[in-house]
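Catalogue entry: protein
Contents: sequence, fold tokens
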Amino acid sequence: MDSKIKKVLEQLLGLGLVNSRKDWSSVSLVCKDWYEAERLSRRHVFIGNCYSVSPEIVTRRFPNIRSMTLKGRPRFSDFNLVPPNWGGDVQPWLEVFASECPLLEELRLKRMTVTDESLEFLAVSFPEFRALSLLSCDGFSTDGLEAIATHCKNLIELDIQENDIDDKSGDWLSCFPETFTSLEILNFASLNSKADFEALERLVSRCKSFKVLKVNKSVTLEQLQSLLTHAPQLLELGTGSFWQELTASQHSQLERAFSNCKNLHTLSGLWEATALYLPVLFPTCTNLTFLNLSYATLQSWDLAKLVAHCPLLRRLWVLDTVEDKGLEAVGSNCPLLEELRVFPSAPDGDDIIDGVTESGFVALSYGCRRLRYVLYFCWQMTNAAIATVAQNCPDITHFRLCIMKPGQPDYLTKEPMDEAFGAVVKTCTKLQRLSVSGLLTDLTFEYIGKHAQNLEYLSVAFAGESDWGMQCVLDGCPKLKKLEIRDCPFGDVALLSGLEKYESMRSVWMSACNVTMNACRSLASERPRLNVEVMKDDGNDENQADKVYVYRSVAGPRRDAPPFVLTF
């Protein structure tokens, strides 16, 4: 290839005119010159499994990386199914990148182990570092945040979400130098310690480009009003506690502060919110596209009043305390809604009065025909209701239904829930992610294998009758990338039926199924490019494979497996 043409290609790639990961990969396959141009131009990499490749391979392939997203533990670790100390340490990655890609600017970690020492190493090893996001990580404390605040002089983003962190104090906010002015995104909503408000206020007041601010529940309404006065330009806001005895003057000041936030499109937090102060939000709601109320135990009438002012809403997260009446109000007021997530306020079933049912789901679907993403926790459901939702919202791409008590049938007909998910996969032809629950026979999986042609991610729990169900999925679903299964009767025949498919998938998880160690050995022998890991539970049958994790890797078996993880 002519050197000038090659240079133009590198510039086009570097300017971000090729955006999707698939397109980047396609570019690299055209010819050797395009491969080399893409190699040198790639600035961001996404690694969905930290053991699928080594940091040495990544930096050798892409020497000019500026941004990396890295995921560690399997998703079922969120449900305590992955033992502690399983792995996923970020330190080896940091050491290699410090040597080979010292100009790294952005790091996004999910379900990784991150120590305070790793955070300090990160802070001092990358002089151009600008953005850190930690989601569902563990191993660190607020001491590590102090190191980031102290040493990262160019930081524009610090996003700390849902981590298992040793939350010592909120003093880390005072470690940002008084000359520091670059921060644009700060999220510490999931921390519990009392924030150093004076330090936070100084930080917000001197960082004039703040776009996202999400504080924890220690921040009072009066303090929130002060922060909004300093940063009326915010695009996203996560409030602290939304309950405090305010004087008439303080109430007016808070209302005025929210009214001045003309650009706000995302609102979250609202801990302990009550009807008393919700009206201060109404002027702001007009432009909201995302309303996250997953920390706010609002009743149906509270939600109804709020969404009546949200005509542009596209994403809504709520607790099931809003009940069916609240969802009906959403259907009546939010015709542009694309994403709905309903979380359980009482996951163990205690103290739940009504929650949400099929009635609210159906009512919402009539008014929100653009729905694409659904996560719905409930205690009862019917086949007819799900079929109606699918009919009303055929463009759904993500459908995650969790009936809280395992193995529940259609509560009206007492029939299995097979036809519900059959309706979803037949009607919603763009479906990419599916989580199933309830009483399900192998017929559900026959429907999935036959009709879910675009499905990439399937999660199954407490379902199925025999190996044939899993075989149907693996024989169909041509685009399947991730398969998660727990507490199902699938065994060796089911596992080994995927021999031809696993190398094109990202991972398979099976726990509390009927898989044996011999089947795992056989799979590893037949497919040496797959890593097959078994996590043993104490006291169980030696030949029983308690938790099986299968994933493709170009790095071979990992070298840091703890004693309870057997690798094949």
Notes: The first strand starts at residue 44 and ends at 47.
